Amino acid sequence: MYLWFHKFGSPPHFYRIAGKWLPWLGGLFILLLVAGLYGGLFLAPTDYQQGESYRIIFIHVPAAWMSLFIYVTMAFCGVVIIVWRMKLAEVVLISSAPIGASFTFLALATGSLWGKPMWGTWWVWDARLTSELILLFLYLGVIGLHSAIEDKRVASRAVAILAIVGVVNIPIIHYSVEWWNSLHQGPTVTKFDKPSIYWSMLIPLLLMALAFQVYYVLALFQSCRVELLRRERNSKWVEDISDD
Amino acid sequence: MNRLSLSQAFIYLLRRDLTLAFRNRAEFANPLLFFILVITLFPLAIGAIPELLARIAPGIIWVAALLAAMLSLDSIFRSDFDDGSLEQLLMSAHPMPLLVLAKVTAHWLVTGLPLLMVSPVLAEMLGMPQEAQGMLMLTILIGTPILSLIGSIGVALTVGLPKGGILLSLLILPLYVPILIFASSAIEGAAGGLDVSAQIYMLLAFLFLAISLSPVAAAAALKMSMS
Amino acid sequence: MTEFFNMGGYAVYVWPSYGLAAIILWLNWYLPTRQHAQVLRQLKRRNRDGNK
Lengths: 244, 227, 52
Known about the structure:
The complex is a heterotrimer of chains A (244), B (227) and C (52).
Chain A: H1 2-9, H2 11-43, H3 57-84, H4 87-119, H5 127-148, H6 152-184, H7 199-231, H8 236-243
Helix pairs in contact in A: 2-7, 3-4, 3-6, 3-7, 4-5, 4-6, 4-7, 5-6
Chain B: H1 6-23, H2 25-46, H3 50-73, H4 78-83, H5 85-91, H6 96-125, H7 130-158, H8 164-191, H9 197-225
Chain C: H1 2-6, H2 11-50
C-alpha cells in the first residue's frame, strides 16, 4: 500500500499512467455528457414555474459543485505539500486552480443568465452569489501568488498555505454573508428549492455532475503532465521521453 | 549567556518594534491620514446628504479601516526582511509564531489603535448617531487586531516578492470580508436599537481564532519566503 | 425543432449558458494539450542541440 503511494507519487510514473488514462477518461466524459444533455434538454419536462429557463441548472449546479470540490482538493493538496513535500501534490494544486476558477466563473455567469429572467436582475448580493464571487478571488489569488514566485517549489509551499487558509475561510464567508443578508432582510431569493425534485430532472443533473467530475480529472491530468515536463525538464526521465 | 523566557522574548521584540515605529513618525501618521482622507472622500463624492451619509457611515469607516490596514501591513516584515533581521529571528531559539505575534501586536498598537481613537470624531462628522458610535469603537477595537493578524499571513507570503503590494490586496481582501460584514452589521444594528451580541460574539470568535492560528500560518509562510 | 431552439422564449439565456460552458470546457482541454505539444517540441530541440 505504502509502495503504491510512493510509486503513484513519482512524476514519471504518473506521467505515463495519466497519459494512458486520458483517452478512456475522454470517452467516459463524452458518454456522460451526451447522456446528461439528452436527459436534461430533451427528456426532462418543462418546469411549471420557470418554463424552459430552468434547464440552465444542468450547467449551473454541476459547475458550482465543482468550484467548491476543486478548492477543497487544492486545500488537501496543500496539506500534503506542507507535510510531505510531495511533488505530485504541488503539480495537482497549481493545475487545479485555473480549472476551479473556470468552473467558478461558469457558475457565476450561468447563475446570472438564470437570474435575469427569474428574478429580473443580473445580480443579487445573497450569501451564495457573494461567497461564490469571493471564491473566484481566492482562486485568482492562488494563481497570482504562484506566478509571482520564481522558485516553483517555494511557490508551491506558498500557495499551499494560502489554499489551506482559504478553505477555512470559505464556510466562514458563506455563513457570514448569509447572516448579513438575513439581518438586512434583503429581497427574498428564489432558490431552486424543491424538496422533492423529479427523477427526470435529478438524473440528468447527477449525470452532468459526474461528467464534470470526469472532465476535471481529464483536464487535470493533461495540465499536470505539461507542468511535470516543465518542472522536471532537466531530469533523465523527461530526456528519455523527449528522445523518442 | 542567559536564555530569555518566552514572555521576555515577546516583550523584548514588542518594545523593539514600537521603538522603531516611534522613531519613524510616518509609520504612525500615514495610515491614519489615509484613513481620514478616504472617509473624507465619500461626502465629496456622494454629495453631503446627511441622511445618506449617516446610513452608510459604518460601511465607509470600515472599508477605510480595511484599506488603511492593508496599506500599512507591509511595515510588519519589510524592514526586517531588507536588513536581514528576519532571518535572524527565524534562526532564534524562540518559537517563530510567538515572535510573529509580538510583531503583529506592535503593528496593531501603531496602526489600529490610532484608528480607534480617531473614529468617533469621523463618525460624528458623518452624522452617525451616538448609540452607534459606541458600537463602532467596540468593533474597531475587536476587528482591527484581526485585520493585523490575518494580514500578517498575507505579508508573510509576499514579503520576498518585488511587487507584492497589489497581490497582497488580492490575497487578503477576501479573507477580510467576514469581519467587514459582522462589524458593519453590528453598528447598523446598534443604530437601530437591536441586540447585536451575536455579531460581537462572532467577531470575538474570529479574534481568538486569529490570535491562535494566524501566527502559526504566518511563521510557516515566513520560513518559506526566506528559503 | 424551432420550439426546442426557442426554449420557451428563454433561448437568449439558455443557449449562451450552454455555449459558455462548451467554450470553457474546450479551453481547459485545448490549452494544456497545445502547451504539451509545444513543450515536447522545445525539449526535442534542446536534446538535438545538446547532442551536437
